[in-house]
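User: quick one, fold this
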Amino acid sequence: MDDHGDVREKILFGKYELQTLLGQGAFAKVYRAKNLRTGQSVAIKAMSLQNVQKGGLTELVKREISIMHRLHHPHIVRIFEVLATKKKIYFVLEFAEGGELFAKVRKGRFNEHLSRRYFQQLISALSYCHSRGVFHRDLKLENLLLDEKLDLKVTDFGLSALTDQIQPDGLLHTRCGTPAYLAPEILANKGYDGAKVDIWSSGIILYALNAGYLPFNDRNIMDMYRQIYKGTFRCSEWTSPELKRFLHRLLDSNPNTRITVEQIMGDPWFKKGYKHIHTDATDCFGLEDYEDNSTQYDFLNAFDIISFASGLDLSGLIGSPDCSIVVERFVSAESPERIIEEVAAKAEEGRMTVVRKKDLGVMVERPNGDIIFTVDIHRLTDKLALQTNKRCTTVWRPMELSKDTARANGCTKNYRKP
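Assistant:
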């Protein structure tokens, strides 16, 4: 593949045969491909590393991989592996044979029974995501796919948020999503509950499945936003009284009184024919799986390891004009605690100050506060750790990092001894 996304190399990494372009967005192209070993069809999402870096999307890409890695549900698209060259990164994903749900709705609205079936599958996936601390934030018909059995598959977690992004006020604040699916509280720009905005978007989807069109849709986007903010919409004449009542609970403009996932599952309209899905958290669908709570440390995922390779450093290190950072990495069988103890002991022998970093790592300072180098430790496996040393080489301030640069590399803001 060249940088414009044309299929030039038909075989990727000797493993996948690229076939047809399925779709493209601002930063990614999606291809259908075949696993040469198994014959299985897969979808490959290709992104230019240059575009990812220029667009400031490195953290979003890493978060998307991390999120998809932890979600193992029959109504969520699976991720099999992550691959990279010096120019591109590839997500190898489950292929949804049935295409986008959006394409089906464009051909005509669904009856109430089929609308309920897909909504039940969506809520099953949504409930699972929220229980794992994941909020999608961009639910829409285009992000719902169908497999060969025409069952629902939620995809595109690029705008998703995790609970660790919730601010001290208990809310998320990044304004994101697709205009016609935005919840009123996002438009208010005062913070929002990730679960509540997902419920609002799911209500938009249910309305569209049953009606064949969106409840809020105006060529003048500001007029559409005013309608959304007020929560004013009309149900189609063929909508049953039970579904109308349910839709008004989903599309309640007040997030405090909007129906919750638990209440959705107890609603009489929703419960008809619903079968609860039991998921197996250990089913990794082809990825190396590390249980979230099996250790107090996070293991490096495939993207992290790829990014450490020569020419693929996506860590976004911030240098300063008078400081050139030298990075050294090596694998150790010592425990992270033992590595940190050894670094601290050597530093103290030289009368240096050791400062603990936010994660597994330390920063070594001279008595005058100048930072000499930093050490970061990452778990590769239960028995191996990756150690990263960063130091500064310059004519005027040899082997020193400015405090601003050190902070940008993950050091704590309050400098104090451990």
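User: anything notable?
Assistant: The chain has 13 helices and 16 strands.
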